[in-house]
Design brief:
9 helices; Naphthalene 1,2-dioxygenase Alpha Subunit, Chain A, domain 1; Rieske Iron-sulfur Protein; alpha+beta; 7-stranded antiparallel beta sheet; 26% helix
């Protein structure tokens, strides 16, 4: 993040007054519980936002070299992105044209060709059918082209986006709607992927994102973990079209105001979270980057992929273990405190006896997120 941008954000904090009230949003909002529990709305979200919209899939550093790949489910569509010999990316439906078997694991490297583990149909890295071993002419009368189905992919600012359904090109700058200046300054493409882990939770996909939209809950829900270090008062918030950034602050952020303004730095005091609607969350921590990617399965089930990235390749196993411990801590807090509560919230909302939820001015990123999702659905 540019230094001047950091100074501008810290100026907001300095002038926000007692309890950071000056960072509050302009108005509270009441949202219908059905936004989380209505199966018809869920199907619309999955189709319009995830399948047909530009969707964040991964950081570029997860496909660092030719033959490397990353895959995932995007709106129920199995998608893989493969780095080509010329350095470009090719998006493919992760299903063999023979009988539909998956071709790619979560991520990997060193591919020279893509080989199906079911009958060994083999494809070039760009998806062109190479061979059908041991078929002895058994498919010579098949007139259907059996290359892998393509998926639109785009890469910019260290981010990889896909469009699972449709052939409209993706303009990442237009999709980020202004967040590209911040994200570009982090040089995300230079990071090293350390590890990713997958968990499935019994809750609507939006509750995963809600978890990170406000720090109001920290003092109480996280009283035995991160509360001593982090403020429970308002976050810094900026909107970028339907996307947003929230910056949770450490309790000692005011220490920075004792320095000359030209020396101010936000990075040691903020957890900077970019919501890449609908699927992703990219977070800059003190010395590393994290990413969350949501894969909605049904209205009350969500698969969550959590990754950690280091600013440079670990020099040895001890250095690698340091970054893994950061992922351990992240998943311990969210997995034992945040997400179990979100599962219970989903159960309560699904009961039909709680018709709405309330987002306060102290939680204004929630207001923006959900109003933005409503607007995207209406436009589509």
């Amino acid at each position: 993040m540019r230094r001047q941008r950091q100074i501008e954000l810290l100026e907001r904090v300095e002038s926000s007054g007692e309890h950071l009230v000056g960072l509050f949003g302009p108005a509270s909002w009441v949202n219908e519980a059905a936004a989380y529990t209505d199966p018809a709305r869920f199907e619309l979200e999955r189709d319009k936002l995830f399948r047909r919209g530009p969707t964040f899939l991964a950081l570029s550093c997860e496909c660092p070299e030719p033959g490397s790949y990353v895959s995932g489910m995007v709106g129920g569509v199995p998608v893989a992105v493969v780095r080509q010999p010329d350095g470009s990316l090719r998006g493919l439906v992760n299903a063999c044209r023979h009988r539909g078997a998956p071709l790619f694991e979560e991520r990997g490297c060193g591919l020279r060709r893509v080989v199906c583990g079911y009958h060994s149909w083999t494809y070039e890295l760009d998806g062109r059918l190479h061979s059908r071993p041991l078929s002895h002419g058994a498919f010579d009368d098949v007139e259907l082209a059996c290359d892998l189905h393509p998926v639109v992919v785009a890469e910019e600012h260290g981010l990889i986006y896909v469009r699972a359904v449709g052939d409209e090109p993706i303009d990442i700058d237009a999709t980020l709607a202004g967040a590209e200046d911040d994200l570009g300054a982090f040089d995300l493409g230079s990071y090293t992927h350390i590890e990713s882990r997958v968990n499935t939770w019994n809750m609507n996909w939006k509750l995963v994102l809600d978890t990170f939209c406000e720090s109001y809950h920290i003092r109480w829900l996280h009283r035995n973990s991160i509360a001593p270090a982090f403020s429970s008062e308002s976050t810094i918030f900026d909107a970028f079209g339907p996307n947003l950034v929230t910056i949770g602050l450490r309790n000692n952020v005011a220490d920075e105001f004792e320095k000359p303004k030209s020396e101010w730095s936000l990075l040691p005091y903020g957890t900077i979270q970019y919501f890449l609607v609908p699927s992703g969350l990219v977070t800059h921590q003190l010395d590393h980057v994290e990413a969350w990617r949501v894969e909605p399965i049904d209205v009350g089930t969500t698969r969550v992929v959590t990754s950690v990235y280091a600013p440079e390749p670990p020099a040895d196993e001890r250095a690698r273990a340091y970054w893994v411990r950061n992922l351990d801590l992240l998943l311990e807090v969210t997995g034992t405190e945040d997400f179990p509560l979100m599962e219970k919230i989903h159960t309560n909302l699904a009961s039909g006896r709680l018709p709405e939820v309330v987002y306060g001015r102290i939680e204004y990123p929630l207001v923006h997120l959900h109003q933005g999702l409503d607007q995207l659905l209406q436009r589509s």
